[in-house]
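Memo to structure team: turn this sequence into structure tokens by end of day. - J.P.
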Amino acid sequence: MLISMGADPRDEVNEFALKAERAGGTVFSKPGEKDGWMYGCGFANPDGHR
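Reply from structure team:
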């Protein structure tokens, strides 16, 4: 299953990544531009589920 959330502007994505880490998650794909058109990040929850 893939869960995605929309955020705008980029600052919201950056803040979301920080919140995920502060909650015990692991950011495995740091915030940045993807495929030339999307800005995003990837993280796993404290149990390691991506």
